[in-house]
Amino acid sequence: MGYSPTHFKSINPYNEEIVCEVPMHTKEEARQIVQNSQEAYINEWINTNYEQRAKLLNAVAKEMKDNLDYYALPMTEEMGKPINEARGEVNKAAWAAEHYASFAEEYLKTEYIESDATESYVQYLPLGVTLGVLPWNAPFWLAFRYLAPALMSGNTCIMKHDSHTPLCALRIVEAFTKVGFPTNVVQNLMVGHSLLEDVIRHEYVMGVSLTGSSKAGAAVGAIAGSEIKPVVLELGGSDPAIILADTQDLEKAADVVVLSRYINAGQSCIAAKRIIVEEPIYEKFIDLLKERFEKLKLGDPKDESTTIGPIARRELVEEMHEQVDKSVAAGARLVLGGQRLDDMQGFFFPVTILADVEPGMVVSCQETFGPIASIIKVKDEEEAIKIANATDYGLGGSVWTGDVEKGKKLASRIVTGQVSINGIVKSDPRLPSGGVKKSGLGKELGPHGIKMFVNTQQVWVGPVKS
């Protein structure tokens, strides 16, 4: 609904009104944006030091925090994120900016290594122009997850944001402009899929970051690979949450699983999607989840009492109904939800619990991008690990147990890029995140993420030591 051959157009998923309409860039305009980014890099940004970059990035964080609703409301209007969550996302984006402003220099400090040289070391140098291809589901956080480390390492940034969130993209660049960031260091690119390939192949684009579906990641990764350009891919997930019978606080485990599954109306790559429960506590845990899901309030995302807003687009609602219907037909037990909400204003999907899910069912094999909890019964932890890994995805996962040491051992057997023990899977500027298998390539955030778009240069100084 938001895509057209000539414009990016966002539709409010609650009232179906047009929020923002922006003309797409032509091929010539897109190439000029890349040219402008290269000139900003060569003529200005490469000559700044960490202190100067940090001062500007901290100013962006302050601008957003001081004008919270100005930056939060576009998310609520364009993709239905409840206003309280949207405010939280702006603050988290600001945190990413502040974190890298504080720690980038430490993360990228020169490393001296003993060799046969008089002196030898590794230094981390910027690449130049980078491109971030961004999704609609967390428009600010995922933008700053790319922008903050790339900028602090000395690169310039071009954002190709999703066609369904053009106002969010405009506001992000506006924040940089307002605080005096040098012209064209951060730019928006409004192009469709056909022109994106041309931009990726542009000689000045030195690295590409994409957050999106596995299909999109495969396409962008293939293009970047054919040009021998570094690429970071953060893709879909079907995260397992393993609940073992020795879990000491099942109430807390249920609270966290429910939060993980409903936040952003379930439209999160790292949400707990497959809840794998040991047999002795299986029915009890289902009851705990149902009790909590029934209390969640669907409604107007601008209403501060709303916990679940609309799904971003109507076709996504239809896809989820198809996933649930096929799984029920295959034998899954519908514990809660599943019904159509045609009498409600907006693109809503009911909070849904499916029990007795088997690994071959649609809701277990595919990513469910909405408030659907799929519960799988297992006999023991060995079966739990086997089922957790029986997926093409490997983004995140969690283990709940009363034995933390056992949890650590199990974590090493879960084939994902991130595991939480007795806690929620989340992204944190201080820690690296990124998936394996069809969930991605490379890392973002933490000290590892900032090194994705740098030239790790080894320097050998002679003469040879005697």
Automatic annotation (TrEMBL):
Any one GO MF annotation of this record: succinate-semialdehyde dehydrogenase (NAD+) activity
Pfam families reported for this sequence: Aldedh
Keyword Transmembrane helix: no
Keywords recorded for this protein, A-Z: NADP, Oxidoreductase
SUPFAM superfamilies reported in the protein's UniProt record: ALDH-like
Coiled coil feature spans: none
Domain Aldehyde dehydrogenase: 6-459
Name this protein carries in UniProt: NAD-dependent succinate-semialdehyde dehydrogenase
Origin organism lineage: Bacteria, Pseudomonadati, Campylobacterota, Epsilonproteobacteria, Campylobacterales
